[in-house]
Design brief:
The complex is a heterodimer of chains A (about 80) and B (about 350).
Chain A (H helix, E strand, L loop, with lengths): L1 H11 L24 H15 L9 H4 L3 H15 L1
Chain B lengths: L3 E9 L15 E2 L1 E2 L12 H4 L4 H17 L6 E5 L5 H13 L7 H5 L5 H10 L4 E5 L5 H15 L4 E8 L3 H9 L6 E2 L13 E2 L1 E8 L8 E10 L4 H15 L4 E4 L5 H14 L5 E3 L1 H4 L6 H14 L7 E3 L8 E8 L3 E8 L2
Parallel strand pairs in B: 3-8, 4-5, 4-6, 11-12, 11-14
Antiparallel strand pairs in B: 1-9, 1-10, 2-7, 6-9, 10-15, 12-13, 14-15
Helix pairs in contact in B: 2-5, 8-9
Classes of the chains: A mainly alpha (about 80), B alpha/beta (about 350).
Chain lengths: ~80, ~350
Amino acid sequence: MADLKVQIIQQLNLQEVKPEDIGNDQPLFKEGLGLDSIDALELIVLLQQHHNIRIAKPEDGPNIFYSVRTMAEYITAEQNKTA
Amino acid sequence: MQQAYIQGIGCVSAQDNALFSGTVRQHEGNRLPVADPDYKQWIDIKQIRRMGRVIKMGVAASHISLEQAGVARPDAIVMGTAYGCLADTGVFLNKLVTQNEDMLTPTAFIQSTHNTVSGQIALMLGCHAYNNTFVHGAFSLENALQDSLLLLAEDPSKQILAGAVDEITDYSHNILSRFRLYKNASTQNLLQSNTHGTIAGEGAVFFVLGAEKNERSMAALTAVEMLYNPASEKETFAHIAKFLDTYGQPDLLLAGRNGDTKNDAYYAAGEEKLFAGVPVAAFKHLCGEFPTAAAFAMWMAAGVLKNGAVPAAAMFKGKAPAAPKKILIWNHGGGKHHSLILLSAC
């Protein structure tokens, strides 16, 4: 999850945010890290670029991108499917 | 033509207000970057992460001008830019190539259009009024000013946020350098260098313009005229002579001299033929050469009219006039785009 936090910070250019500032279960959007819909698109690209994962069902987005932990779990599950 | 009063000015450039008290930021090289202020004083940290440098420059300059004018939300936003948001355009195009047109991120694309700056200012102000960006090369600022004057002629109660931005990026500077446009020079010796080439510049300047004079008015924007691609020097001078017939001789000519022999020859001939005895000041050794550099000249001229003194570092020829009342900015881009901007004391 530490690597994923670094990737999120770089992809979204979160200036002055350090990986340790992002809680594993902290919501990424709205009241949490305060991300918005443009960031959601950036996170989709992050999954494609860094993990070669394309989200098949857009309606799953809110659950996948809820927190760093949910993102990490989704990445692990997708990687296990193709392993 | 409708006259407008400058109620506030914001300038992000290689110089700052210390110029008017005699402190000049000295530079050496072929590129004169802006002295970036701490943009976080105007822009939220969550928003700033998506903004390219030119957007931050424009937003900062607009905020300063609005604060000075005491205007929370203008009735129109009108700006000019020749290059637009070059840095983000470069990022987007590079990704397009390196990623084989796949997995393109939205941020650089959104931020890459020429009207991103005026759009971003409007978003931050919640301003849904008229919003226009003129992309007319070296006439971008002048067209924005003329549009602003037309808006004020239609409705004198309006407060217009008008301005111009242009940036240098490493990529654009490398490309333009291949045309041998630039040379190494210093702020102090550029105007006397008398060789080919100049120094690259950038900057953002915004003005709040209103038709009515008020206690915040710094100067009046009396006239803006353009002459495109004159066939001869004679045509250029006839145009300027007609302008002077209408508005009279200025107390100070602020010329777009940039240290390039060919460029400055226009001014040398014009000064001799049309402006005999008129003191001449310059501005491009202080801000560099860029298509909307006349906006920096306007900032300087308004400061001179307000403070009643010409910075010694700006003077090129003659004795600096005490408390000038009329300053004429004559600028040209490559001999094709000649503009005349007249500012008066108020």
